Amino acid sequence: MASMAPQAPSTHPVAFLARRAALALAAVAVLGTATAPAAFAEPAAAPPASPEKLPDGLYGTKDPQYDGVWRQSLALLAQDTVGVRPAASAVDWLVGQQCADGSFTAFRAEPKQPCDAKTMRDTNQTAAAVQALAALGGHGETVKKAVSWLKTVQNDDGGWSSMAGSASDANSTSVVIGALTAAGEKPESVTSKKGGKTPYDALLTFQLGCAVKEGERGAFTFQLKGAAPNADATAAAATGALGKGFVVAPAKKGADTPVKPLTCKDGKPAKSSDAASAADGGAAYLVAQLDRNGQHLLSAMPGQEKQPDVGNTADAVVALAAGSHGAAARKPLKWLEKNAAGWAKENGPAAYAQLVLAAHATGTDPRSFGGSDLVAALNATGPKPAGIASPAAEGTEDHKDGDSGVNVWWVVGVALAFGAGIGFLLSGRKKKNEL
User: Does the keyword Lyase apply (predicted)?
Assistant: First the structure.
């Protein structure tokens, strides 16, 4: 989707650590998730008991009940994005979390036991896993089954909710769009069985237009019920509307597109709205919020409205970069470089992953991020990586080869085996929720 540590589900799904809140996702329980979102939490429930021993290969040390698959997926994806080959045990753990029907839930303590009717299948967790495993390569069948399941729970309006059967929301719809793209699908071709609506048809319904006051125009709401501007949903949707997921390739040097606010004439949009212009409107809303708050977004959690939302700010950076708004993205990125280290340390792998992906989207070195090495810190939250490619290899598009299992890592491994006689160089180092 922002993100924090796992806790009981909130009434407002967290979609993007939807991102959003990659950690918020985790925190506000991916049962609402992730995109990552973040909104109005219920009174604190008793925290779930932590497992006596966390599974081998799992990233992080906190209870994975609400965000295990989410944080694992973001961690693996961020590592892959910057040239780190994750440990086999980490990838195997994620693959082993899949249910037979292709879906993922937040955490299965006993993956050998089949998923049943009580298993809380989650589109956000599933979409996050798809993005990670598609990027890593070699898991085509797992990805195919997950995408097939996502298609079976698409709502009539073309979108998705966190939990099948609930009303669509902007965060879940966006994270699934990212998964479809990562899996090689064309989101605009994935239509609902009833009505033939696309994910973009659904996503555009969440954007606030000329009927609201000027400062809210262009923002996205989380759900249509109780529609109100939501920065978390806006960051997710501004990325999803462009058909992009968690990983956004850096724009070419010097490329920068000014944001274009949603404008109205005689109470109607000045121009017809399509996905790209909707993304522009969302980006303009984010920029206005960032400028007003000192280049960070504010928390939507009750009692914390004046506190910075670090995870959502990171998501906003990715959204702005996705729209080629480089200059606008670099301003909040500099704020993150100065202020995000403590937050990431407290919240763990998904938080580090969000920052790594924000740095990557802007062409910034995540190994030198405000004096911190985000990559080393992320690696330290899980099993030791199997290998690390040279920085020059990062961002290449040809290092995966479907299910063959043959990729740049095999080549690196062979080269290192001959050169050092020791094989690979080892690193030292998201119950149904609605508004």
Answer: no
- Rounded percentage of the chain residues whose pLDDT exceeds 70: 77
Q: Of 391, 424, 413, whose CA–CA distance to 82 is shortest? A: 391
- Residue 220: φ, ψ to 5°: -110, 145
Q: Tens digit of pLDDT for each residue in 198-228?
A: 999 999 999 999 999 999 999 999 999 989 9
Structure tokens at 184: 């090689």
Q: Are 426 and 159 in contact (CB under 8 A)?
A: no
Indicate whether 416 belongs to any domain.
yes
Domain region containing 54 = 22-420
User: Is residue 106 domain-resident?
Assistant: yes
Phi, psi of 387 (to 5 degrees): 180, 160
CB crowding 1-24: b at 16 or more within 10 Å, else e: bbbbbbbbbbebbbbbbbbbbbbb
Please say whether the beta carbons of 188 and 158 come within 8 A.
Answer: no
CATH number (domain holding residue 179): 1.50.10.20
Indicate the number of domains in the chain. Answer: 1
Residue 427 lies in a domain: no
| Residues 85-131: tens digit of each pLDDT | 999 999 999 999 999 999 999 999 999 999 999 999 999 999 999 99
- pTM for the full predicted model: 0.81
In a domain, 15, yes or no: no
